[in-house]
Design a protein that fits this description.
two-stranded antiparallel sheet, 3-stranded antiparallel beta sheet, 210 residues, 41% helix, 9 helices, elongated
Protein backbone atom coordinates (compact mmCIF):
# COMPACT_ATOMS: atom_id res chain seq x y z
CA UNK A 1 0.00 0.00 0.00
CA UNK A 2 1.24 3.46 -0.87
CA UNK A 3 2.33 5.74 1.97
CA UNK A 4 1.23 9.33 2.44
CA UNK A 5 4.83 10.37 1.82
CA UNK A 6 4.91 8.63 -1.57
CA UNK A 7 1.62 10.22 -2.60
CA UNK A 8 2.78 13.72 -1.60
CA UNK A 9 6.03 13.16 -3.47
CA UNK A 10 4.06 12.20 -6.59
CA UNK A 11 1.75 15.22 -6.25
CA UNK A 12 4.69 17.63 -6.05
CA UNK A 13 6.45 15.91 -8.94
CA UNK A 14 3.35 16.15 -11.15
CA UNK A 15 2.62 19.79 -10.32
CA UNK A 16 3.77 22.38 -12.86
CA UNK A 17 4.04 25.05 -10.14
CA UNK A 18 5.04 25.07 -6.44
CA UNK A 19 2.47 23.10 -4.42
CA UNK A 20 1.53 24.74 -1.11
CA UNK A 21 0.72 22.72 2.03
CA UNK A 22 -2.84 24.06 2.09
CA UNK A 23 -3.32 22.88 -1.51
CA UNK A 24 -2.13 19.40 -0.55
CA UNK A 25 -4.55 19.30 2.39
CA UNK A 26 -7.37 20.42 0.07
CA UNK A 27 -6.53 17.57 -2.31
CA UNK A 28 -6.80 15.16 0.61
CA UNK A 29 -10.51 16.02 0.82
CA UNK A 30 -11.14 14.60 -2.66
CA UNK A 31 -12.90 11.28 -3.13
CA UNK A 32 -9.73 9.49 -4.22
CA UNK A 33 -8.23 10.16 -0.78
CA UNK A 34 -11.23 8.94 1.25
CA UNK A 35 -9.36 6.04 2.84
CA UNK A 36 -6.36 8.15 3.78
CA UNK A 37 -5.88 10.48 6.72
CA UNK A 38 -3.56 13.48 6.87
CA UNK A 39 -2.95 16.10 9.54
CA UNK A 40 -1.16 19.41 9.19
CA UNK A 41 1.52 18.16 11.60
CA UNK A 42 2.09 14.96 9.61
CA UNK A 43 2.28 16.91 6.36
CA UNK A 44 4.86 19.27 7.84
CA UNK A 45 7.03 16.32 8.92
CA UNK A 46 6.71 14.61 5.54
CA UNK A 47 7.77 17.76 3.67
CA UNK A 48 10.73 18.17 6.02
CA UNK A 49 11.84 14.56 5.50
CA UNK A 50 11.46 14.79 1.72
CA UNK A 51 13.54 17.99 1.70
CA UNK A 52 16.25 16.24 3.71
CA UNK A 53 16.04 13.13 1.53
CA UNK A 54 16.66 14.97 -1.72
CA UNK A 55 19.46 17.10 -0.28
CA UNK A 56 21.60 13.95 -0.49
CA UNK A 57 24.32 13.87 -3.15
CA UNK A 58 22.69 10.70 -4.47
CA UNK A 59 20.05 12.83 -6.21
CA UNK A 60 20.54 15.32 -9.05
CA UNK A 61 17.47 17.31 -8.00
CA UNK A 62 16.20 18.71 -4.71
CA UNK A 63 12.94 19.81 -3.11
CA UNK A 64 12.85 23.57 -2.70
CA UNK A 65 10.35 25.84 -1.00
CA UNK A 66 9.33 28.46 -3.55
CA UNK A 67 6.81 31.24 -2.92
CA UNK A 68 5.29 29.27 -0.04
CA UNK A 69 5.03 26.02 -2.01
CA UNK A 70 7.24 23.04 -2.82
CA UNK A 71 8.72 22.03 -6.17
CA UNK A 72 11.54 19.84 -7.46
CA UNK A 73 14.52 21.63 -9.03
CA UNK A 74 17.73 20.40 -10.61
CA UNK A 75 20.58 21.09 -8.20
CA UNK A 76 22.63 24.18 -8.93
CA UNK A 77 25.86 22.19 -9.39
CA UNK A 78 24.43 20.73 -12.61
CA UNK A 79 23.57 24.15 -14.02
CA UNK A 80 26.49 24.32 -16.54
CA UNK A 81 25.39 21.02 -18.08
CA UNK A 82 21.67 21.74 -18.43
CA UNK A 83 21.92 25.48 -19.13
CA UNK A 84 22.09 25.18 -22.90
CA UNK A 85 19.11 22.83 -23.06
CA UNK A 86 17.08 25.22 -20.94
CA UNK A 87 18.09 28.27 -22.98
CA UNK A 88 17.27 26.48 -26.23
CA UNK A 89 13.79 25.74 -24.90
CA UNK A 90 13.26 29.12 -23.27
CA UNK A 91 12.38 31.69 -25.90
CA UNK A 92 11.59 34.31 -23.29
CA UNK A 93 15.17 35.25 -22.39
CA UNK A 94 15.16 38.70 -20.89
CA UNK A 95 16.87 41.58 -22.66
CA UNK A 96 19.21 43.89 -20.78
CA UNK A 97 16.51 46.60 -20.77
CA UNK A 98 14.02 44.12 -19.30
CA UNK A 99 16.50 43.04 -16.63
CA UNK A 100 17.16 46.65 -15.62
CA UNK A 101 13.46 47.48 -15.44
CA UNK A 102 12.57 44.26 -13.61
CA UNK A 103 15.31 44.81 -11.02
CA UNK A 104 14.06 48.34 -10.29
CA UNK A 105 10.52 47.03 -9.84
CA UNK A 106 11.74 44.22 -7.57
CA UNK A 107 13.63 46.57 -5.25
CA UNK A 108 11.35 49.62 -5.39
CA UNK A 109 7.87 48.06 -5.60
CA UNK A 110 5.23 49.30 -5.68
CA UNK A 111 6.42 51.65 -8.42
CA UNK A 112 4.82 53.66 -11.23
CA UNK A 113 6.01 53.80 -14.85
CA UNK A 114 6.93 57.44 -14.35
CA UNK A 115 9.26 56.47 -11.52
CA UNK A 116 10.78 53.72 -13.67
CA UNK A 117 11.44 56.17 -16.48
CA UNK A 118 12.94 58.71 -14.06
CA UNK A 119 15.42 56.10 -12.79
CA UNK A 120 16.28 54.55 -16.18
CA UNK A 121 16.16 57.80 -18.15
CA UNK A 122 14.27 56.24 -21.07
CA UNK A 123 10.69 55.50 -22.05
CA UNK A 124 9.61 52.15 -20.53
CA UNK A 125 6.29 51.51 -22.32
CA UNK A 126 7.59 48.62 -24.44
CA UNK A 127 9.58 46.94 -21.66
CA UNK A 128 6.74 47.16 -19.12
CA UNK A 129 4.36 45.62 -21.66
CA UNK A 130 6.80 42.75 -22.32
CA UNK A 131 7.20 42.09 -18.59
CA UNK A 132 3.41 42.10 -18.17
CA UNK A 133 3.01 39.75 -21.14
CA UNK A 134 5.64 37.49 -19.60
CA UNK A 135 3.75 37.54 -16.28
CA UNK A 136 6.90 38.59 -14.41
CA UNK A 137 5.18 41.73 -13.09
CA UNK A 138 1.59 42.63 -12.36
CA UNK A 139 -0.56 45.71 -11.86
CA UNK A 140 -1.14 46.27 -8.14
CA UNK A 141 -3.58 49.14 -8.44
CA UNK A 142 -3.38 52.90 -8.90
CA UNK A 143 -1.30 55.52 -7.14
CA UNK A 144 -2.85 58.46 -5.29
CA UNK A 145 -0.61 60.78 -7.32
CA UNK A 146 -2.17 63.17 -9.88
CA UNK A 147 -3.62 61.22 -12.80
CA UNK A 148 -3.81 58.06 -10.65
CA UNK A 149 -1.08 56.19 -12.57
CA UNK A 150 -0.88 52.41 -12.45
CA UNK A 151 1.53 50.90 -9.94
CA UNK A 152 3.50 47.73 -10.62
CA UNK A 153 5.08 44.97 -8.57
CA UNK A 154 6.61 41.54 -9.13
CA UNK A 155 4.27 38.58 -9.63
CA UNK A 156 4.07 35.09 -8.15
CA UNK A 157 5.61 33.82 -11.40
CA UNK A 158 8.60 36.12 -10.81
CA UNK A 159 9.20 34.15 -7.59
CA UNK A 160 9.07 30.86 -9.47
CA UNK A 161 11.17 32.13 -12.40
CA UNK A 162 14.05 33.12 -10.14
CA UNK A 163 13.56 30.46 -7.48
CA UNK A 164 12.67 32.76 -4.60
CA UNK A 165 10.53 31.97 -1.59
CA UNK A 166 10.25 35.61 -0.49
CA UNK A 167 11.27 38.99 -1.94
CA UNK A 168 13.47 39.29 1.15
CA UNK A 169 15.65 36.62 -0.49
CA UNK A 170 16.77 39.14 -3.12
CA UNK A 171 20.48 39.98 -2.77
CA UNK A 172 21.38 43.18 -0.96
CA UNK A 173 22.13 46.08 -3.28
CA UNK A 174 25.82 45.99 -2.38
CA UNK A 175 25.90 42.37 -3.62
CA UNK A 176 24.35 43.25 -6.95
CA UNK A 177 26.12 42.43 -10.22
CA UNK A 178 25.48 44.19 -13.53
CA UNK A 179 26.56 41.18 -15.59
CA UNK A 180 23.58 39.70 -17.44
CA UNK A 181 24.85 36.12 -17.36
CA UNK A 182 25.48 36.36 -13.64
CA UNK A 183 21.97 37.72 -13.20
CA UNK A 184 20.44 34.77 -15.03
CA UNK A 185 22.54 32.21 -13.18
CA UNK A 186 22.68 33.55 -9.64
CA UNK A 187 19.61 35.80 -9.40
CA UNK A 188 21.85 38.87 -9.24
CA UNK A 189 19.54 41.75 -10.05
CA UNK A 190 20.86 45.23 -10.26
CA UNK A 191 19.67 48.80 -10.06
CA UNK A 192 20.97 51.16 -12.74
CA UNK A 193 21.98 54.47 -11.21
CA UNK A 194 21.36 57.66 -13.16
CA UNK A 195 21.34 61.37 -12.51
CA UNK A 196 17.56 61.31 -13.01
CA UNK A 197 15.31 63.10 -15.47
CA UNK A 198 12.82 61.82 -18.01
CA UNK A 199 13.85 64.05 -20.87
CA UNK A 200 16.37 66.66 -21.97
CA UNK A 201 16.10 70.43 -21.55
CA UNK A 202 14.10 70.69 -24.76
CA UNK A 203 11.29 68.64 -23.24
CA UNK A 204 11.77 65.76 -25.71
CA UNK A 205 10.61 62.35 -24.51
CA UNK A 206 13.45 59.79 -24.29
CA UNK A 207 13.52 57.15 -27.00
CA UNK A 208 12.14 53.75 -26.08
CA UNK A 209 14.59 50.84 -26.04
CA UNK A 210 13.79 47.23 -26.84
Amino acid sequence: MLSNSQIIEALIFASDSPLRPDQILDLWKAEAFNELEMTHFELKNILKKLTEKYSSEAYVFELQRINGGYQFYTKRIFYPYVRQAVLDKNNRKLSRASLETLSIIAYRQPVTKTELEFIRGVNCDYVVKKLLDGQLIEILGRSDAPGRPLIYGTSAYFMEYFGLNDVKDLPKLEEVSIDEETFQEQLKVYLKETDGGTGDDSGNIPQADK
